[in-house]
Write a structure and sequence with these properties.
Length: 121
């Protein structure tokens, strides 16, 4: 996950979020030093950096909320046995979508064949 912020000159700066299995932090994947500031949720991490900016020239000011049309991975379920087909880049499965209010709707779920996990999306 990447957070995009602006510096004093309105230049975009991308901050990469890392997850170690229990905590979120900002840092580079190749860094030899472990991150100093870690929180169990992204919300807590962002709230920390709003109150304590990562640098004097970089401040997190305004959140851009997830658009309503952008669906969450956690609201979809499928099983390998329900595979409908595949192509060069994706496989398609019969699955279920948990809609707002709890209603379950049968859907086709397209899964990329590249190695991406839920915390990367």
């Amino acid at each position: 996950i990447v957070i995009t912020a602006c510096d004093d000159n309105h230049k975009k700066v991308n901050l990469t979020l890392r997850y170690d299995g229990s905590n979120w932090s900002i840092g580079h994947a190749n860094s030899a030093q472990p991150p100093k500031i870690k929180y169990p949720t992204i919300v807590e991490l962002v709230e920390h950096y709003i109150a304590h900016p990562p640098s004097k020239h970089l401040k997190l000011l305004k959140a851009i909320l997830r658009p309503e049309w952008m669906l969450k991975h956690e609201n979809f379920v499928y099983e390998e046995k329900d595979k409908l087909g595949s192509g060069n880049f994706c496989s398609v499965y019969k699955g279920l979508w948990k809609r707002t209010g709890g209603e379950m709707k049968e859907v086709a779920v397209k899964i990329s064949l590249t190695a991406v996990n839920a915390t990367d999306a």
